[in-house]
Amino acid sequence: MTNSVVCKFGGSSVANADQIEKVRRIVIDDPHRRFVVVSAPGRIHKNEEKITDHLLNIASNGTHFQEKRKTIPASESKQAVLDRFTSIVHDLGIDGKKMMESLKQDLETSLEGERQIAFLASRGEHYNARIIAAYFQKQGMEARVSLPEEFGFLVTESFLDAKVEEIAYENIAALDGTEMITVVPGFYGVTEHAEIAVFSRGGSDLTGGEIAYAIDADKYENWTDVNGVLESDPRIIPAARAIPRLTFKEIRLLSSKGVNVFHLDAMLNCRKRKIPIHVRNTNRPDDPGTQILNERVPEEGVVGIARLDNMAYIYLEKDMLCEEVGFTATLLTIFQNYGINTYHYPTDKDDIAVLVKQDDLKGSINDLRRTIEKQLKPDFMDVVYNLSIITPVGLGLKRNSYPLVDAINALGEHHIPIEMIDQSPSQICFHIGVSQAIADDALRLLYRVLIASS
Ligand SMILES: Nc1ncnc2c1ncn2[C@@H]1O[C@H](COP(=O)(O)OP(=O)(O)O)[C@@H](O)[C@H]1O
Ligand SMILES: N[C@@H](CC(=O)OP(=O)(O)O)C(=O)O
C-alpha cells in the first residue's frame, strides 16, 4: 500500500491514559498513520521507574535496581506493574478485566533463565498494545492489535538481544493492505519455537524501523517526550534545541556515542530503503521535530554533541611498537578473545591506547593484563578508568578543522585536561576524552563554543 506512515510512540508517550489520548489524536490527524508501534508505559514523573524496569526487577528477584544503588523488592515491582495497568484501563474506560487476569498469570510465569527474563520484559509492550487497540476501538476507530507471536515477527534465539530473521519481513508485509489501524507492541519478537525474545533496551524503535522497512513505508515517525534529536543531552544542556535535519550517518554517530533518544540500529533498514525518519514530540505535535534523511546540505560545523560515560582505556608503551608487524592485531585479538568490544585505539611510534566500556573489564582485567604482558611484553601498561568521551558531530566538519582547534583551545583556556583525542576517518566527528568528574563542565563549554556561539 502506498502512502503509509509507521508511528512509534515511546514509553513516555504511552505512560498513562492522558498520554494515550494524545496518541489517539495524533493517529487520527493523518489517515496515512496506519501502523502504530507502542512501548511499555514509561515514567510519568522523573523519579519513578519505567514499567520495563519493574518487570526486569521481578525477573531478577529484586536486584535489577542495584546498579542505581537502590533496592525495590520484586513484590513491590509486581504491584507497581499491576497498579499502572489497572489505572490505565480504568481511566481509558475500557473493559480490561480479562487482560488484567491474564497479566497477573503472566507475572507468575514458570519459565526460567533468559526465557523468563525476556517473557516478563515483553509484557509491558504486550498489554499496552492490547489496551491501546481496545481504546481506539471504543473511540470508534477501525483498529486491531497484531501481536508478534501471532503474525510471526520471527527473531533469533538470543533471548535478550534478539535479531530479526528474514522471514519476519514477509510476515510483517502480509499485515499491510488494510485501511485499519494496526497496533503492534514494540521490543519483542518470537523464535521459531514460539518463545518470546526481546531486542536490546530501547528496542521498540527497532520494531518501528523494521515494520517501516517491511512495508516500504513513506515515513517512519518516532514520537517521544522531547522536541526531536536535541543538540546535546537536555539534562545537562537545558538550552539545547532540536536539530532540524540530520543524515543517517550523523544520527548513527550521535547514537553510538550516547545520544539515547533513538535506538542505534533502528535506522539501518530505513536507510537501505531511503525511508525518512521524523522524530517528534507527542506533547507538542505541531513542533517541526528532527528529520533524518539520506542527504542534507550542511550550513554549520557541529550540529550535535554526544557524550559517552563509564569508559576506560588500557595504555601500553613499548619502544618501536609501531614497527612490530601485527602488534595492534594481536592486541585487538586478545580483547576479542575476552569478548570485549574496543572503541578507539589511538596509536603512535612507541605507544597505543585501547578504549573500552569499563563494565566490560569487570572480572577479567587481571587476566587480561597478564595475557597482554605474556603475548606482547610491553615496557609499561596502565589502566585509566572513569573517562567520558565527548563527540561533536556534523557533516560540516569535513575538511574544516576550525571547530577542532576551537574545542582544544577552549578546553586549554579553562584548564580542562584532555585525556585523549581521536578524529573519525569520515572527518565528520571527533572524540575528546576527559575525566568523567569534569565531563559536565567540558560538555557545557564545548556546547557554548561549538554550537551556541557559532
Ligand atoms: N541529544 C538528545 N536529544 C534528545 N533527547 C535526548 C538527548 N540526549 C538524551 N536524551 C534523553 O532521551 C529521552 C528520550 O528517550 P527515551 O526515554 O528512550 O524516550 P521514549 O520513552 O519516548 O522512547 C529524552 O527525554 C531525553 O532526556
Ligand atoms: N520498553 C523497552 C523498549 C523501548 O523501546 O522503550 P522506550 O520506547 O520507552 O525507550 C525499554 O524500556 O527498553
From TrEMBL:
Coiled coil: none
EC number: 2.7.2.4
Gene Ontology MF annotations: aspartate kinase activity; ATP binding
Alphabetized UniProt keyword annotations: Amino-acid biosynthesis, ATP-binding, Kinase, Nucleotide-binding, Transferase
Gene3D superfamilies: Acetylglutamate kinase-like, VC0802-like
Pathway this chain belongs to: Amino-acid biosynthesis; L-threonine biosynthesis; L-threonine from L-aspartate: step 1/5; Amino-acid biosynthesis; L-methionine biosynthesis via de novo pathway; L-homoserine from L-aspartate: step 1/3; Amino-acid biosynthesis; L-lysine biosynthesis via DAP pathway; (S)-tetrahydrodipicolinate from L-aspartate: step 1/4
Transport recorded as keyword: no
Catalytic activity: L-aspartate + ATP = 4-phospho-L-aspartate + ADP
GO cellular component, one term: cytosol
Domain Aspartate/glutamate/uridylate kinase: 5-281
Keyword Lyase tagged: no
Gene Ontology biological-process annotations: homoserine biosynthetic process; lysine biosynthetic process via diaminopimelate; threonine biosynthetic process
PROSITE patterns according to UniProt: ASPARTOKINASE (PS00324)
Family: Belongs to the aspartokinase family.
Protein name in UniProt: Aspartokinase
Organism lineage: Bacteria, Pseudomonadati, Planctomycetota, Planctomycetia, Planctomycetales
